[in-house]
Every structure is written in C-alpha cells, then in structure tokens.
Amino acid sequence: MIVYGVNAVIEALRAGQVRAVRVATTSARMAEVQRMAAARGVSVTRVPVAALDRATGGAVHQGVAADVEPPGLLTLDELIAQATHPALILVLDGIEDPQNVGAILRVGETAGVDGVVRQRRRAAALGPVAKTSAGALAHVRLASVVNIARALTELKAAGIWTVGLEADGDDIYGDVDLTLPTALVLGSEGHGLRRLVRDRCDRVASIPMRGRINSLNVAVAAGVGLFEAVRQRQVANRTA
C-alpha cells in the first residue's frame, strides 16, 4: 500500500509499518522524514515529482510517499477482545468518502477509541484515508465486517451499548449515558443511517442545531459524540 503526505509518512514510520520511502522535494520536514527513515533502517530514494504524481494518481503528496505494510484488519471479535473497559468504538455505516473517513479516524484516535468498524464492501481506499487522517490510520484498530446491522447485534451480545447519531434522533446526545461500553454509529452524509442499522441501535440520538444549517459534517458529529463520551467518563472517574 502507498501512503503519501508528510504527516502520514511520519506516523507510518513511527508505527514501524514502512518498507521504503520516496522523496521528490527538499525541506525541513523532508529532512525529518529522512532522519526517521535512516534511524529505522528504511531506504530512501529520491525520485522526480512526476514519478510521485503517477504513483499516487495525481494526489497532493507533498513530495513524499512510502510503501507500507497494509494495516492489519481485525475481525469484530478481535476488536471487542482488545477493547478497554468501558469500550468506546466507532461504527461507520456507508461512509465511503476518504476525506470523511480520514477525519473520523483522526478524531477517533485523539479521543482514544478502541477501534473503528467498517463494512468490507464500498469502503474508502486506505491510501487516501492515511493522508486525510494525518497519520492516524497508523494507530487506529480497524475491523472489517460483511454486514453492519449484524455487527451491531454482535456488539450488543458482547455487552456494548449501540448509539446511533442522527439528525432526527429520539434523544439528545448529552442525555445518553456514554459511560457504559458504547459503540457510536455514524451514517453517510447523504442518507444517514440505513433503516435496518438504525433499527438495530439501542438508542438514536441527535446533536441540537442552533443555527440556520441543520446538519453537521459526519466527522464533526463523530467528534462531538466521542468527546461527550470522554467528558462523561472523566466526570464519572472524578466522582467515583
């Protein structure tokens, strides 16, 4: 798999996933990439910018790309087994845009999620996701499933509370107890949660809108929900 962009390559190097690095420009950040690669015994090859353009399909690569080990995709059972207690998991229902998936992984990593569940088919390519996640892909556990609705049933069987985020949810997100083991379920921007997925959720919550625009970008919604869970858990720990 090819990962490109300075931050994405640096994080892949930190995670020990890089086989080789290709650089096409010179800068202080590029020197940092080269130092990190040398310290880890990873070869660095200088190439023309046009070569990186071809390798990345014309993406904004910032003059660097790396050949990396593809992230090891977990089964849902493996992800649940590796989760902390109380678990905090993200489930992506039909989100295919690499920009959104990358941003969700970044906010998920900063919130300390145990992992992200996504459907095997119609999933965003991980190379662009690594770039837009600013390297978070290197640090977030991913589980690949055939069917999201069935995955929610398995999460519930494992004692994990499933909470969908939807504009017309029945509850306000801040009123839902997120100190419990929780999987936050996010739908695509165009269609939201699919009906069967929504029906499988234990609760469906909304984020109140106060302005003239009636919806949030899905990555922003993920951040709001995740950091409400973080806030509630911090409060619970202080009062325990």
Outline the structure in words.
The protein has 240 residues and is α/β, with parallel strands linked by helices. The protein has two domains: 2-68, 2-Layer Sandwich (60s Ribosomal Protein L30, Chain: A), CATH 3.30.1330.30; 76-239, Alpha/beta knot (3-Layer(aba) Sandwich), CATH 3.40.1280.10. It contains nine helices and eleven strands. The longest helix has 22 residues, at 218-239.
How does CATH name the architecture of the largest domain?
A: 3-Layer(aba) Sandwich
Mean pLDDT: 90
- Count structural domains: 2
What is the CATH class name of the largest domain?
A: Alpha Beta
Order of helices and strands: EHEHEHEHEHEHEHEEEHEH
What's this, in brief?
It is built from 9 helices and 11 strands.
Task: Furnish the topology, listing elements before pairings.
Layout: E1 2-4, H1 6-14, E2 18-23, H2 28-39, E3 43-46, H3 49-55, E4 64-68, H4 76-82, E5 88-93, H5 98-111, E6 115-119, H6 126-132, E7 142-145, H7 148-157, E8 161-165, E9 171-172, E10 182-187, H8 195-200, E11 203-206, H9 218-239
Parallel strand pairs: 2-3, 5-6, 5-10, 6-7, 8-10, 8-11, 9-11
Antiparallel strand pairs: 1-4, 2-4
